[in-house]
Amino acid sequence: MKNEYTAVVKKEDDWWIGWIEEIPGVNCQEKTYEELKESLEITLREALEFNRQDALNAILPDQPSNDPNPL
Fold this sequence. Notes:
This protein has one helix at 33-59; strands at 7-12, 15-20, 27-30. The protein is of the alpha+beta class.
């Protein structure tokens, strides 16, 4: 399944800032527009994976995590 998300991007002085409207906490700041796009994509993927793991842990608390890099 492929989802679409809305990125809000703007230039503030020497910085590009942006966030994903649909996912709280996904916001980034970079020096270039291209760096900002890449950071938003990475941060969005990480947030979605974290939320997915958190939801799975809530319904299956005794199951081991599939995360290859546990904290």
